[in-house]
Amino acid sequence: MSGHPHSDVGASSSQRWMNCPGSVLAQSGRGGSSSVYADEGTAAHELAESCLICGGDAREWLGHQIEVNGRVFVVNEEMAGAVQVYLDHVRRVLEHEQCATRPFFSVEYKVDLSWLREGMYGTADLVIYDGYTIWVIDYKHGKGHAVTAKGNTQLRYYALGPAWAYRCESAAKVVMTIVQPRAEHPEGRIRTDTMTKDALLAWATQELGPAVDATRKPGAARKAGAWCRWCAALAVCPEAMEKAQEDAAVEFSRVDPEWDPKTFVPLDPGTLSTILKAKDFVVQYLNAVKVEAHRRLAAGEELPGWKRIRGMARRRWKGEPDEVAQFLEAWGVIYDRCWNRKIISPAEAERQLSALKLPKEEKKEAKDGLKEFWEKLPGKPRVVREDQPGEAIGPNDAPDVPEDEFTALDFFE
Ligand code: SF4
Question: Taking Cα atoms as reference points, which of 177, 157, 192, 45 lies closest to residue 107?
Fold first, then answer.
């Protein structure tokens, strides 16, 4: 999607290298093959790009195949629905918000920050500029990790592209938005941060530029933290190993020294809290180590006590679904029983109503009528750090504890 080669101080990895300057050298030459999730995200971006350039909605591409790195992704309801949230937001900004004048609009906007430091470039999903406000809108297809817009260095990096390009014009405000429809976040699926253009440029010279310099110093320091999640060197990094050991051993050893080991562990609130804090990094580290084990076994290396096996085989249709249904029908199966029909979501139903060519009042009447058919279920309770967004729920609110709270641990069968 990007015409540029990969930048080692790029936008998407900026949280990592700004916190751990040594990670640029540590992970050079590592990584390589992309994950199925990353490729699926690229496919969704390509769908969004096609819709914005050619016009039309994502559902019009249902069944269309998109190939990324040899993997084929079929545009299904889930992908089309998620991409449509992004398209709707972009079109809302273009049509209804403060775009008073005919705005500049660029899909896959090439960002070049070589004016700040050499080697800084990337591609922003979408940039809009109306002579006063610059909008930078980033689509995220992932559902595993909800990304916050406030203070997001990737968004700021992208926004610096148009902010610099229009520095001599009247651009004054920068609105940076993440659209991430499939991940749960207390601020919703569309999250925004706003800065003045001058504040953004000051951040670039005071923080971003010096952070790049730090990565290029001989012996640049490594510092482990939450940002290691995306580092290709995580499994082999001494600082990460040390932190995982410290988090596991030191925090777990907080148990009261007076404790009689023949009784249950006295998990006082302080101990419980510190063990939970340790969990995130330890799980991340162990996952990276397991991936490294997969890689080495696949390359033929011996790992004492471990082997690779195939999971349970699954059957799937090879031909066109309709041909299968016709075959079954020919043998007497009722055609309709060959298909699982599923009603569209309330959000999609509202969107379909909006797209109808009806007078405004009738659309409102239809949407009001639709309300009779849906209800909002409360979200599943989750345990998160105190500083994360979201209002704490009371002790009697949602008393059932979900059993799949720590599904990440399932990786270790
Ligand atoms: S694993 Fe963490 S500490 Fe190690 S190089 Fe990567 S980001 Fe830095």
Answer: 45
